Amino acid sequence: MDVIKLGLGGFGTVGSGLAKILDMNADRIAKRLDRKIEIKSALVRDLNKKRAFDLGPNATLTDNPDELVNDPEVDIIVELMGGLDTARDLILKAFAAGKHVVTANKHLLAEHGLELFQAARENNVGLMFEASCAGGIPIVQTLKESLAGDKVNNMLGIMNGTANYILSEMTTKGMDFNTALADAQDLGYAEADPTFDIEGFDTAHKLCVLIRMAYGVDYPLEDIPVQGITGVTPMDIQFAREFGYRIKLLAHVMDVDGQLEAGVHPALVPYTYLIARVGGNYNAIRLTGNAVGPVMLHGQGAGDLPTGSAVLADIMHLIRHMKQGVTPDNTGFDGLAIEKAKILPPEESESKYYFRFTVADRTGVMAAITKSMATHGVSIAQAVQKGEAGAEGVPLVIITHETRAKDANAMIEEVDAMDFTVEPCVKFRIL
Ligand code: NAP
Ligand code: HSE
Asked: What is the pLDDT of residues 331-375, one digit of tens each?
């Protein structure tokens, strides 16, 4: 039986996960492909570090990227190191050497995806990236193949396992933020720099990649409004619970009369919705196609085996194409140039909101806030004030009806400047 050889760029959490699955499911893989898959070499930074999985005597560890791309026996380069510059160089050199590439690197794809897809096309090679979005959930293939004929009206989801793990632990166990983050790091969910997870940037990277797959256009990363979860306090989680919601970090995109509206925000989700029940490192994506209607995918969004599973699926996809002597369609839009999206300005977007004002507990405060809301066309659905008389600041929580972002922001600016305001207003969207 022929053997397909892999050069792994990176042998950390995901690289080890891939190696474990190749070992665990070797017979099944060979039966499906009529080929064996072997790791020939793996690129690492530290050759002396203890590894989670032993590569065996036939594979070598190296700290020289050129050893992978210059090795004529390596058929596919699998980039699993993360970061931008070294990963980009490795992939471009792999293309130039005529090698196909699989990557899990959403940051790289969001920043340099257009360049990489172009280079893959020019070199007639495959660039597969299922693992880059939502870990083990097959959302890339779903958009590219299963729903290829549908127009996606909207897509919304939990796309970061670390952030979802933190919010779940804070909500269900009352765990503090930093302990939950440390756990997520220990479990292999977090990025090398976890700021990407907790500040929403990793979710934005995935959203950027998925918008390309769903709509065939580029929504530049810098145009996506991003709010992370570091501002979500136990108090907000408790208020949300009392109003019948759970707080989740969501990414969303929707087609509003031919313009795309997208963003990443913590949001209050009615607790009866499936997406509110998605816990731990799980992710979920709900989309609506104009033919298929609503579809929901749910699964582990981070971790060695779930992510390794998605990487392996891409490798097998490539091998099937290699056997037929054809190059896969990388973007799902048949090699067409990806043009910039028509974007609805974020301030024109509409949502229901949760506002938590921290104010002095004195006469006239509620009247002043509601007057400002009325002036800016912000309509109140529910309100509650809690706290002890005499405290320096008490929380006043207001839930609104549908409101334009521009109006909400103008109202907050006005109220934050009032003399009774003790802390700036906390604002979350409501689904
Ligand atoms: P990781 O555990 O930190 O592993 C990274 C690997 O790459 C390590 O083996 C490291 O070498 C090597 N490496 C990093 N920079 C290098 C450089 N400049 N030169 C040579 N080797 C280098 O990361 P990971 O969690 O596996 O993530 C890998 C990629 O998958 C990232 O793009 C990440 O965003 C993506 N991803 C991760 C998950 C997840 O659940 N972890 C899920 C989906 C996607 P050393 O071992 O010697 O340090
Ligand atoms: N750090 C990412 C997460 C890994 O927590 O979702 C999966 O992309």
From this structure: 999 777 899 999 999 999 999 999 999 999 889 999 999 999 999
Q: Which residues of the chain have pLDDT under 50?
A: none
Ligand 1 mean position, distance from CA 55 (Å): 16
Distance 413 CA to ligand 1 centre (A): 42
Which residues are marked as active site? 206
Shared domain check, 163 and 130: no
Residue 388 forms part of a structural domain: yes
User: How far apart (Å, rounded) are the C-alpha atoms in residues 284 and 272?
Assistant: 15
- pLDDT for res 203: 98
Pocket (CB within 6 angstroms of ligand 2): 135, 160-162, 189-191, 197, 202, 301-302
Cα 324 to middle of ligand 2, angstroms: 34
Bridge partners of residue 380, in order along the sequence: 400
> Could you tell me if 277 and 312 lie in one domain?
no
Same domain flag for 177 and 312:
no
Domain-located, residue 141: no
CATH number at residue 274: 3.30.360.10
One domain, residues 157 and 63:
no
Contact 190, 319 (CB under 8 A): no
For residue range 177-220, list pLDDT tens digits in order: 999 999 999 999 999 999 999 999 999 999 999 999 999 999 99
* CATH number of the domain residue 374 falls in: 3.30.70.260
Distance 194 CA to ligand 1 centre (A): 13
198 with 230: CB under 8 angstroms?
Answer: yes
| pLDDT at position 389 | 64
Joined together, the tokens standing for residue 153 give 């009206």
Same-domain pairing of 251 and 130: no
* Ligand 2 atom having least distance to the Cα of 163: 5
Q: Mean pLDDT for the chain?
A: 96
Closest CA to 123 of 148, 98, 141: 98
Q: Which atom of ligand 2 is nearest to the CA of 160?
A: 6
Ligand nearest to the CA of 82: 1
Q: Indicate the pTM of the whole model.
A: 0.97
Can you say whether residue 198 is alpha, beta or left, with left for phi > 0 and alpha for psi between -120 and 50 degrees?
alpha
The closest ligand to the CA of 61 turns out to be 1
- 10 within some domain: yes
Indicate which residue's Cα is closest to atom 7 of ligand 2. Answer: 302
Asked if residue 279 belongs to a domain, the reply is yes
The boundaries of the domain holding residue 121 are 3-135+304-340
Give, using CA atoms, the residue closest to atom 1 of ligand 1: 12
Which two structure tokens, joined as six digits, stand for 18?
A: 């891939």
